[in-house]
Amino acid sequence: MNPHNPNQTFPSAPPGIPFPMLTPKQEPRDETIQEIQYPNLENLPNQNLNLNLSLNLDFVSQALEQPTTTTAGAGTVDAARMAEIFRRSFTEGLQRQIQNNDAVDENPNANARAIVPVSASESNYNNAPPAGEVVNVRKHKELVRMTDVGLPDQRQFRDVVRRTRMVYDSVRVLAMAEEEGNFNVRRVRSDLKASATMRSRGLWLNRDKRIVGAIPGICIGDVFLYRMELCVVGLHGQPQAGIDYLPGSMSSNGEPIATSVIVSGGYEDDVDEGDVIIYSGHGGQDKNSRQVFHQKLEGGNLAMERSMHYGIEVRVIRGVRYEGTSSTSGKVYVYDGLYRIIECWFDVGKSGFGVFKFKLWRIDGQAKMGSLILKEAFLLRRDPLCYKPMCVISLDISKGMERVGIRLFNDIDRCNDPMCFEYLPRATFPHFVFHESGNATGCQCEGFCGEGCFCFIKNGNDFPYSQSGLLLKGKPVIFECGPSCSCPPHCRNRVTQKGLKHRLEVFRSRETGWGVRSLDLIQAGAFICEYTGVVLTREQSEIMTMSGDSLIYPNRFSNRWTEWGNLSLIQDGYVPPSYPSIPPLDFSLDVSRMRNVACYISHSSTPNVMVQFVLYDHNNLMFPHIMLFAMENIPPLREFSLDYGVADDELTGKLVICN
DNA sequence: GACGGTTCAAGCGT
DNA sequence: CACGCTTGAACCGT
């Protein structure tokens, strides 16, 4: 539990699993039929621009010494010509700037002029416009680098980013839910719809300034399910293109500057070794992503070269295949931190066409790469004992009581406390709860629950979950279909009662004592687990408190559900639906003897997990189940955190409960 | 089901 | 302002 870490906690994911070496396929070239089309070199400008371009011609010739040269056939490549192509591409880019009357500055310190450092207080990052106002729809041109972001600001930024992503997800999931009835119509792209809605409301982040370097509030390892989401938070501004940059026409010295790149393996000549990337420039491809032309040093390619020249770092986002993402095409985007471009050359790609290549080095001293953590989690899912098997105390502390096993992992000390408790997969309520709640009334639906369903009406004429089981809107309490309903077990209104879906792990951490994380990526809005224990009435609680046992008070959890699915920023005059008020909860959970995985979750005031009360097996509003949902996409192996609603100085007491 | 092709996208730079 | 470009995503057919 670390209340001073705004970014939740970065659990120490197991180190030492080597990053897979993704070497390019070494296919033998057929040198005799290689045909290379050259751009027309006749119109090369003859005047010597004499710009001292700091062209490193060494790597040009190095590239040319590769076995791309052939000795036979019509397409003989010679080094001089390739160098000429390179030089030509380069001068074209510069000439364009000269025509624009932009000064070409050769002082590498121009970096200092091109980029204005901005401190957190100067940024108007926090000023969300009032609902309905359309503002700042286009990107701004000023290039800045965020500096001196203090801890309170970081926490603030993190919160703004989290809320923004929550709105994005809410709108997206609701858009998807609206479309569910239409089978004949082509489905609306919910990812695009959500971003468009937010853009028209001025809810995209970081559009007043173009940020080079880290984006405040976004941590290395954060996972995004859609390209558009990257645009919404300002991490990468291009919906499709891989290089985002400030165009020369807008920069202060007339030169384009790259800000971020997405590495997703779309170019055959890319090489990704984790800390070192050989990134291909863009262009030269046909509609089927085949390389059919030479690339030119313009647009993003030129921006990359200029960024290298000035030593300006770029953000790297990796597109990674991820099995099991329900709604997406099986790809997620992970922010992997800042890289420096250290080399740039013009090479002949596998296709035989000229390709710009950029060598990127990851800057030292950053948090562990998100894509590496994804890889490790993948290996752990495949073989739970593949890393430090001696530290795996148990493969399932629930001893088969949950649908999936819960690992217990400790590579810090010899403590194995979680083994000493009886595992309780569901909260146990006093018997009177079931009797005093009147007749448990269920719905009469057959096959599936639809509009007329009684449970649907009880939830305020809403289904609480999307078709894929994501929480749509936080409510004081949610009514799931239960044992007295006639609908089948696979009914969409039965989510939490089915129990755990993700492979969780209780792990030992130096910062938080025990913590909980998942081996799976958990989507925002997904159910995680119940917070169980033995339910005690107030009278029983008072007695137990005197005997010094560990009690959890459900009414203390902060009401984060109010934020989830709240569309007040999107819909003009949006009023949160008026829910039937529920009486203040007056019970406690005794976790001193029987507990489940939930009580090892750490506290944070910027949590990634929230509480939603749910009823299904009885109708007593005073005693709902305490269900935990993901408030954001939680990457694998990142520690869960929950706002216990305690002041920081009470934390020591909270730690006692969890340890 | 895994693919590859097709279609419809959206923002941005020019 | 319209157009062209782009390492998307859903859908359809094989």
Please explain how this structure is put together.
It contains 12 helices and 26 strands. The protein has helices spanning about 55-65, 80-100, 110-115, 150-180, 190-200, 225-235, 300-310, 370-380, 430-435, 455-460, 540-545, 650-659, and strands at about 115-120, 145, 210, 225, 245, 255-265, 270, 275-280, 315-320, 330-350, 355-360, 390-395, 405-410, 420-425, 480, 505-510, 515-520, 525-530, 535, 550, 590, 595, 600-605, 610-615, 625-630, 640. The strands form 7 sheets. Strands 4, 5, 6, 7, 8, 9, 10 and 11 form an 8-stranded mixed beta sheet that branches. Strands 12-13-16-17 form a 4-stranded mixed beta sheet, with no helix packed on it. Strand 10 (about 330-350) and strand 11 form a beta hairpin. Helix 1 packs antiparallel against helix 2, helix 4 crosses helix 5 (about 190-200) and helix 5 (about 190-200) packs parallel to helix 6 (about 225-235). The longest helix has 29 residues, at about 150-180. InterPro entries: H3-K9-MeTrfase_plant (IPR025794), H3K9_HMTase_SUVAR3-9 (IPR051357), Pre-SET_dom (IPR007728), PUA-like_sf (IPR015947), SET_dom (IPR001214), SET_dom_sf (IPR046341), SRA-YDG_sf (IPR036987), SRA_YDG (IPR003105). It is an enzyme of class 2 (transferase).
Label this structure with key terms.
single chain; 659 residues; alpha/beta; PUA domain-like; Beta-clip-like; 2 domains; 8-stranded mixed sheet; 4-stranded mixed sheet; 12 helices; 20% helix; globular; disordered C terminus; DNA-binding; Histone-lysine N-methyltransferase, suvh protein, putative; centromere
